[in-house]
Amino acid sequence: MERYNGTLSREWAYVRDYTTERERRVALAEFVNYYNHERPHAALGGRPPISRTAGSNYRIVFDQPPEPLADIPQQLTFEGFA
Questions:
Q1: What are 40-72's pLDDT values in tens digits?
Q2: How far apart are CA 56 and CA 5, in angstroms?
Q3: C-alpha span between 17 and 57 (Å, rounded)
Q4: Which DSSP string corresponds to 32-78?
Q5: Could you tell me if 40 and 48 are in contact, meaning their C-beta atoms sit under 8 angstroms apart?
Q6: What InterPro entries does the entry give (predicted)?
């Protein structure tokens, strides 16, 4: 967990300034998808973690509520997860 937190800090949180909460959350969903589906991991022989899960093709998406409900907290959800 500590390694993941360090990677999250170095490769997502402190890479740039986010001007809005929505922008930050969208970037987080994109980073988590990259981390799990594309980023090579030394402990996995240069493969991404998704390579360890048979038949899984989930993606995390940022759910943006309709404009009138913009004050409702937004969430990250799984897409295509069965």
A1: 999 999 999 988 887 777 888 877 654 555 555
A2: 24
A3: 30
A4: HHHHHHTS-BGGGTTB-GGGGSTT---EEEEEPPPGGGTTSPPEEEE
A5: yes
A6: Integrase_cat-core, RNaseH-like_sf
Q: How far is CA 32 from CA 6, 66, 70, 71, 75, in A?
A: 14, 24, 24, 25, 14
Length of the chain: 82
CA 9 to chain centre: 13
Which residue has 């493969």 as its token pair?
47
Distance from chain centroid for Cα 10: 14
Burial of 63 (0-12, 13-18, 19+ CB in 10 A): exposed
